[in-house]
Fold:
Amino acid sequence: MSSRDLLVETMSQLLWERGYADTSPRDVRQRSGVGQGSMYHHFPTKRDLALAALERNVADALPATSDLDGPGDPLARIEAYLTRERDALKGCKVGRMTQDPQVREDPVLLAPVARAFAQTHASWTSVLREAIAAGQLQDGLDPERLARTLMSVIQGGYVLAIAQQDPAPFEQACAGAIDLLHAAAPSTTIPRRP
Amino acid sequence: MSSRDLLVETMSQLLWERGYADTSPRDVRQRSGVGQGSMYHHFPTKRDLALAALERNVADALPATSDLDGPGDPLARIEAYLTRERDALKGCKVGRMTQDPQVREDPVLLAPVARAFAQTHASWTSVLREAIAAGQLQDGLDPERLARTLMSVIQGGYVLAIAQQDPAPFEQACAGAIDLLHAAAPSTTIPRRP
DNA sequence: GTCTATAATGCGATAGAC
DNA sequence: GTCTATCGCATTATAGAC
Structure:
């Protein structure tokens, strides 16, 4: 593995574990074993390295949405995505970045994060639209809104899990969302004949 | 206002705006105008000051749950809480702390955060139980789970809003949650007589 | 590309006078 | 309680040889 790739890989890990503000170039050097000179040759500033690492983290995280995009029963895809194995105590490597002021205030650093969420929102909207069309969810529900709701359940679930130092709240949040989706199925009772 | 209170107040703001790692004792001094000697007299370390400020932020944030606890129609209280005016781009002053490794890894600093979430969860569970008992939500929904789900919607909504630098995703996430709750009302159609 | 040396600035605190 | 002075170390680089 080239020094360059090693630096990006290491910074990606550290951004996930510690965030931007709390990760120093020295941390990256020590964990990666790459020397000072090499590091500043490939990446003139910490920000440059962080940008590359952030893009890598986004590229890492997005394939998970293939659960949503893939073919098959829409509601089943939604449930598969919501029950997918996740390390709740580590949080989301993309969502995490929104809490780092130096990332959030820097349009260039924030851009990959915004793109990732926009794309995920599109996938969610699409599968929800399908579920409504298939009669699995009540007509009249707004797929774009619901997409925001379900994305939030995941992102917020991480927060609850870390606060309690226990993955259970994350799992309960997702399970509760699935319960709600089931409860929002169109009624199957047949209205009394007029 | 005493120097001590001024320090706590200022640290509270900075923890909300910038987090723990990215806030230095010097930042606190400069914004508060309190001198070095005073500061280290009242708070021997940055961590001591942060703990006091964190407890203040928790005390600030909890009264909002009175929307949930208060008397009246349970579902209306839920909707009131979910549509309450919030500055989505600033995020949650309590939830934010879960993303600071130095807070999350320090049981003493994390404790007030965990307590706040536990208490909020209790309020949510209680109002949801009432809503189910009142026939506003389908019987068989689990109030504890649903409480996690709705708390997550709020916490995650902040993440989406910051990622897009736009409060709309937050509002949509909450609106979508309300839509889902309405869709999860018990069916009012009368089943065909057997 | 990688190395070692150097440096300005900030961080988080301590010391001791008033 | 508040002030000023000082401190050792980390951060975020830069310089220039190899």
